[in-house]
Write a structure and sequence with these properties.
1 helix; ten-stranded mixed beta sheet; two-stranded antiparallel ribbon
């Protein structure tokens, strides 16, 4: 009995609240005037392109050089995100094949580690991964890594695409695409 009474009271309160909201809207918005709320409330910034959920990363084989295979990792930001700054070479690289980690040495960074690059919608960035040429590198199709910027590290990023893993891995700095 108490439960049925509580539900009846709850429905009555919800109906009254909805009616008051409609009445208030009718008073506040004059007839014939369109009204729309901004997608992002005033003063509330768009989410950062540097958040792992707001970007996509893909691995592409690139032309090799003497003694090395090259792969380009391209990062693209989701539309509607705010740009952020990145600098230096990614770190904490973990190579996997369908989710199973592949053994690899710690990647050695090369190039300018201080230059900041803007990353955001319409401004993709990239970095180079060099792997020593060998007769049989271990195959991988995922690369987890961390990026760096003036605001701190961005861990937990994941790129997908074919890549060979072997000794002597070097990783270049983030650059404009």
């Amino acid at each position: 009995m108490t439960t049925r009474l509580a539900r009846t009271i709850g429905r009555g309160a919800a109906t009254t609240t909805a009616a008051l909201a409609v009445a208030a809207a009718a008073v506040l918005v004059p007839a014939g005037v369109a009204s729309a709320a901004p997608a992002t409330p005033a003063g509330d910034p768009a989410p950062s392109a540097c958040r792992p959920a707001n970007q996509q990363a893909t691995i592409h084989p690139a032309p090799g050089s003497a003694g090395h295979r090259h792969y380009t990792v391209v990062l693209s930001a989701a539309p509607g995100t705010s740009p952020c700054l990145l600098s230096g070479s990614p770190s904490d690289l973990v190579f996997s094949l369908n989710g199973s980690p592949r053994a690899s040495e710690v990647a050695v960074p090369y190039g300018d580690q201080t230059r900041a690059v803007e990353f955001g919608p319409g401004e993709p960035v990239q970095f180079d991964v060099q792997v020593r040429s060998s007769a049989g590198p271990a195959r991988a199709n995922e690369l987890e890594f961390s990026l760096h910027g003036p605001g701190g590290d961005v861990p937990g990023l994941l790129a997908r695409g074919p890549i060979g893993v072997d000794a002597g891995i070097q990783v270049g700095p983030v650059t404009e695409r």
